Amino acid sequence: MTETSTIQQQGKTGSSTTIYNPEDAVLERYQEGARQHQESLCCPTEYEGNYLEILPQEIIEKDYGCGDPTRYVNVGETVVDLGSGAGKNCYILAQKVGAEGKVIGVDFNDEMLGLARKYRSEIGAKIGHENVSFVKGKIQDLKLDLDRAQAWLQANPVDSIEAWGAFEVVRDRLRQEEPLIADNSVDVVISNCVLNLVRPQDKKQLFQELYRVLKRGGRVVISDIVCDENPTPEMIADPELWSGCLSGAFREDAFLKMFEEAGFYGIEILVRQSEPWQTINGIEFRSMTVRAYKGKEGACWERNQAVVYKGPWRQVCDDDGHILRRGDRVAVCDKTFQIMTNPNSPYSKDIIPISPYEKIALEQAKEFDCKRSSLRNPRETKGLDYRITETDDSESGCNTESCC
């Protein structure tokens, strides 16, 4: 541990306790991991397809993770990889999103950034396009470009309180005028075993940043280490366990709650490791991959739409509190209708959409009445004047132009 990583505090009883900065512990551990492969940082993972075949062995050996979030990314998407490390996931994504897509790796470890950037041209030549960039930043502060901040510091060394104040002004300006990752600019944010390394006091901001950079309808796919019980205070105070992805692990239920509190919807466990990766003090640590979506905020407009939940559960409740009982025509606003029925929605496979026979233009729609009955009368969908009668003439057989 470096001298800047720990300090000694004298207690009232005269005994001393060691306090460390998790960021320093993580940086030091992964700097070493960039120089030499560390088996203890890797949770065995099988990757989809043959995307690893073109990657240099150095990247494969010195990149660490606990899942494969890359398999949930599509052609043409803009993707940010938080804690991109040696760049393995970014170079897999470069092949998946194609020439029309874009991949941005974010890391604050210069050793890892140097390793990842080293192969950009070589891999770009192999796949026929260069669509990957690696930027320096903290994943809990995706507005601040640390390369630009560092360049200012080199030209303006901080040697006084006044100079520190000037640097704070520069940081705020960079966040506002030249953000590292702009608001609402990304289709997908992925991360592979990195969120647990962020300091506890920064984790709420981390999830807010995930939400900020995503476009409406965008999603996060996060693979991380979770635990079934909270780590003990002694484990949290151990820099080796922290930098080893254990002490900072989220409790499973709390992990999902963090996405919910940040405003995400459609939160889903895609993969949960059946057997624990490690067990310490009776606490089980395992890999879990979670997907969540952005876009449930906004106005509610009445367009006479309804949804029917197919089952098999008797009833379910969505992230906005709508209760869907199996088989019922539930009245929903246009925003909820789009969320539930879009082909890319996490709900669409369980929902039957019912659109009105006469469409209501969005600019003509009235505000949806949240106090109304939750059920949609079929006449609202068909129209009050709907009087069509259709019969099946069994004697003449099926008229292929009218009924088949």
Structural summary, described in words:
This protein is an alpha/beta fold and 404 residues long. The chain contains 13 helices and 18 strands. The protein has helices spanning 22-35, 57-61, 88-97, 110-118, 120-127, 146-155, 161-177, 203-213, 233-236, 239-243, 252-262, 334-341, 378-382, and strands spanning 6-10, 16-20, 78-82, 102-107, 132-136, 186-192, 214-227, 250-251, 265-272, 278-280, 283-293, 301-302, 305-309, 315-317, 323-325, 329-332, 351-354, 366-367. Strands 3, 4, 5, 6, 7, 8, 9, 10 and 11 form a 9-stranded mixed β-sheet that branches. The protein has a 3-stranded antiparallel β-sheet with strand order 16-13-17. α1 packs parallel to α4 (110-118). It is globular and about 80 Å long.
Label this structure with key terms:
404 residues, alpha/beta, 9-stranded mixed β-sheet, 3-stranded antiparallel β-sheet, globular, disordered N terminus
